[in-house]
């Protein structure tokens, strides 16, 4: 089962401007062939379908723990997309009704790359790629053969790294939100590629980790990666659990960081990263999000929240 925590794996910087085309570019990291929906979908169903779990614990635990992290990556990219699509929050923008909508307040939305992100999704993220093509189950590989599936996962993480680098290169230096998403995911994706490579080496004797990094550009070249390298995130795998999935230590621990990254021993950390605050995403009443005149629903929500805190109600 899964435990949900009301945080992102990192806190994202607020966007300086509305940039739905940058949001569309970031969608590639969500619903693209090598996006987070693909990594999540592959590892999730591989972990469900894994045979002889009790006898192959180090490898099952590795796939299962990374699955939980990938769910948080889907959440992180989705928040980044929505933040770029909506732009900076304006104080009080969701405190009044939507006003006169006859003046075409969203006329510019006709010209953005993914107009459906506004028309259908109100500026939110959905599992599509940068051209609004839907992610689908054909991108999931779960064969039941451990070596084949781990090799596929290694390929998937290398492909994801390639796409993250290209999306990163498409974002201007002013797109701090999107670049922060890329920087963090480049570090964590490198961890996962390294982990699957070590698992394959333990099973087959082939030192596939010597192929890393692929593409052959060090994380030291990406400014947005530096905070995570400095704190040692490139050496950590998280269990995303309390007391479970510890056997993956046999795959990860006792090994060293990749050449080119800050040196040190690889470690498994029980639990999850400290995480950061989720951006509030102020409503846009003129887009009917959360509604044209949201005052009443906000008053109702405030009453329910007070009642819950007083023990006289529930938020469920």
What is the CA-atom radius of gyration, in angstroms? 21 Å
CATH level-4 homologous superfamily of the largest domain: Ferritin, core subunit, four-helix bundle
Distance between the termini: 19 Å
In the CATH hierarchy, the third-tier topology of the largest domain is known as: Ferritin
Structure description:
With 316 residues, the protein is mainly α. It has 2 domains: 20-88 and 111-280, Ferritin, CATH 1.20.1260.10; 283-316. The chain contains 9 helices and 2 strands.
Q: Could you provide a short overview of the structure?
A:
By secondary structure, the chain is an all-alpha fold. Helices cover 44% and strands 2% of the residues. It folds into two domains: 20-88 and 111-280, Ferritin (Up-down Bundle); 283-316.
Which key features would you list for this structure?
single chain, 316 residues, mainly alpha, 2% strand, globular
SSE topology:
Layout: H1 20-31, H2 36-49, H3 57-86, H4 116-119, H5 146-170, H6 176-204, H7 226-230, E1 236-238, H8 249-252, E2 267-269, H9 295-309
Parallel strand pairs: 1-2
């Amino acid at each position: 089962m899964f435990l949900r925590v009301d945080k992102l794996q990192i806190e994202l910087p607020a966007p300086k401007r509305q940039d739905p085309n940058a949001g569309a570019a970031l969608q590639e990291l969500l619903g693209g062939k090598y996006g987070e929906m693909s990594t999540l979908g592959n590892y999730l169903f591989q972990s469900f379908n894994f045979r002889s779990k009790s006898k192959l614990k180090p490898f099952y635990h590795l796939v299962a723990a990374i699955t939980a992290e990938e769910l948080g990556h889907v959440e992180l990219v989705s928040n980044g997309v929505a933040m770029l699509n909506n732009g900076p929050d304006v104080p009080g923008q969701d405190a009044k009704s939507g006003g006169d909508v006859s003046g075409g307040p969203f006329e510019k939305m006709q010209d953005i790359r993914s107009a459906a992100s506004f028309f259908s999704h109100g500026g939110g993220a959905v599992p599509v790629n940068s051209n609004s093509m839907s992610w689908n189950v054909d991108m999931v590989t779960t064969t039941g053969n451990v070596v084949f599936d781990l090799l596929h996962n290694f390929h998937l993480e290398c492909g994801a790294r390639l796409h993250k680098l290209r999306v990163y290169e498409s974002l201007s230096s002013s797109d701090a939100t999107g670049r922060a998403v890329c920087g963090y995911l480049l570090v964590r994706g490198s961890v996962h590629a390294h982990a699957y490579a070590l698992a394959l080496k333990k099973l087959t004797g082939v030192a596939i980790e010597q192929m890393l990094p692929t593409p052959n550009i060090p994380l030291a070249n990406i400014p947005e990666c530096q905070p995570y390298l400095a704190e040692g995130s490139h050496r950590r795998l998280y269990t995303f659990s309390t007391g479970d999935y510890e056997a993956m230590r046999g795959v990860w621990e006792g090994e060293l960081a990749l050449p080119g990254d800050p040196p040190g021993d690889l470690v498994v950390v029980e639990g999850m990263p400290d995480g950061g605050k989720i951006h509030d995403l102020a409503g846009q009443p003129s887009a009917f999000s959360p509604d044209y005149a949201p005052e009443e629903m906000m008053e109702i929500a405030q009453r329910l929240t007070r009642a819950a805190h007083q023990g006289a109600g529930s938020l469920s």
